[in-house]
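Audit log entry. Action: structure prediction of a protein-small molecule complex. Ligand: nicotinamide-adenine-dinucleotide. The ligand was supplied as SMILES and no pocket hint was given, so placement is left entirely to the predictor. Protonation state taken as written. Sequence taken verbatim from the request; no trimming, no tag removal. Recorded inputs:
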Amino acid sequence: MLKNYCIVGLGSRGLSMFAADILEHYADVAQLTGLCDINPGRVQYAQRVLGENIPGFTDFDAMLDSVDCDIVIVTTKDATHDDFIVRSMQRGKDVISEKPMTTDEKKCQRILRTEKETGRSLRVTFNYRYAPYKTEIKRLLSQGIVGDIHSVEFRWFLDTVHGADYFRRWHARKENSGGLLVHKATHHFDLINWWLGLDPVEVAAMGSRQFYLSARQPNHGERCATCKVTDACEFYLELSRDKELKSLYQDQEGYDGYFRDGCVFSDHIDIEDTMSALIRYPNQVQVTYALTAATPFEGWQVAFNGSKGRLEAFEPESFVVADDMTEFAHRSSGRKTTDWRRASNDHDTPLEQLEVRFYPLFGGVQTFPVPHVTAGHGGGDRRLRDDLFREVQSDPLGHIAGSKAGAMSILVGVAANRSIATGQFVKIADLFDPCDVVS
Ligand SMILES: NC(=O)c1ccc[n+]([C@@H]2O[C@H](COP(=O)([O-])OP(=O)(O)OC[C@H]3O[C@@H](n4cnc5c(N)ncnc54)[C@H](O)[C@@H]3O)[C@@H](O)[C@H]2O)c1
């Protein structure tokens, strides 16, 4: 059956992950009936590039008043998700929200309560669950390969291309994004919750900004476009050199003053670049987590220790290969998906296969190969969209994520932020009322 979708938030995610992709791949099951953004220039740009005479709006209610809509897709900045989720459900619409579902515990509770009161449904787009490599870990854990799980070690690395980008945009302020422990780590905490099949109990965390500091570039400007020290800056970004950055952001600055090339060393930044957390789960399962936003490579590692042995996974996502590239735009074009351990020794072979390794407590290692998928988020984006827009026949590993998963993942980050501020352990139960959870 053909369903009608409206999108609010026409930045890069709204346009590429959803609007353009719906038209290209899901026209038989999905129809785009409305486009909304607070920035009229981005609305017009979206209408132009999508080229299908889709009605455009800067007022969300006006959109819902005037077009047919079954499901609203929310792709605005994080701290505004709750408002659009709640208003959509109150008007009888189901919702697909980008991660993080929201940025603090009050907004989280409001979403859960509205979902319960209205009977509408909310899906949260945890694309990483759908990536084949992460799915293989879930499959093996579901079979009980490590026995009773005692502890998990999880580390995520953001390189100086991707990681730096969070420090130039709205993400750099906690009031917009909740900081990287919410904005970014919602993916990671969701994976841990999903892999374990458990809800987190208690969190302690540390966090600081040690790299993206003005001391690194003392004479920096407010943004790259007006900066006087671009020649000396490793993070200089020239928006006009990239077609999308220019059309989607630079050309639309006049409407809302949002510039996409903010200085990564700005004093107004209040998010951390170096974070770690201890998370306790039921049955005394202990998780150690670390997130770093200024590494030479990008990727992640996880290990599960249990009564039968240890399961390990490692996915290198990129390596910045050229060492003479001092400008951000050059460095980003010099990124390759490769094994950084070999690349650093000049064996720059692209990965064709990843593997999950299981080390039994007694006996030889077992390996479980998985093809290395480099398409959007380890292949998760396409599989997620198939799941969202086409009827799902079965979901044996529980990939579908709703509001409870959205809540549980952000609450770990909210608790971590509170722990950083207070130096105390923070209980998840102190942050929300489980009565509002729709199971
Ligand atoms: N699942 C993933 O892996 C993934 C990847 C990238 C981004 N995201 C999420 O997608 C969302 C959008 O990210 P992005 O990179 O496209 O950001 P962006 O800044 O490029 O786009 C956000 C858009 O929302 C609009 N907007 C902001 N406030 C609004 C409001 N009150 N009303 C209407 N429009 C408003 C902005 O004008 C902008 O066009 C974020 O929540 C982000 O966390 C998820």
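Audit: result stored. Residues 113 and 132 are 33 Å apart (CA to CA). The pocket of nicotinamide-adenine-dinucleotide is lined by residues 8-14, 37-39, 42, 75-78, 80, 98-99, 125, 127, 183, 377 (CB under 6 Å).
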